[in-house]
Amino acid sequence: MKRYCLALDLIDDSALIAAYEDWHQRIPGEIKKSITDAGITSMEIYRIGNRLFMIMETTEAFSFDHKTEMDNSNPAVQKWEEMMWKYQQPLPFAKQGEKWLLMNKIFDLDKN
Fold it and tell me: Taking the model in full, what pTM does it have?
């Protein structure tokens, strides 16, 4: 198992944030299937203010490049991502076109 942590911001508008959270209570089956088909075994998203934090656990074979290829060829995922971008905004230091950014682990209680 591998674990990845990623961050992204939402547009700082309470109505948009509520709508985004509502969508995540009823994710379409096609989107869930695209996540699990890519080798993601667990995914959680947390929010504070307009900042999102995602924890993903994956199989050892998981690859972000392969997930991107799968998503680019899946019309349902493309429609979902386009809709989600209405609520999301890049982190201030993100490069052009970047959404969820991989976070660096800086501490592990079990190893320190």
Answer: 0.92
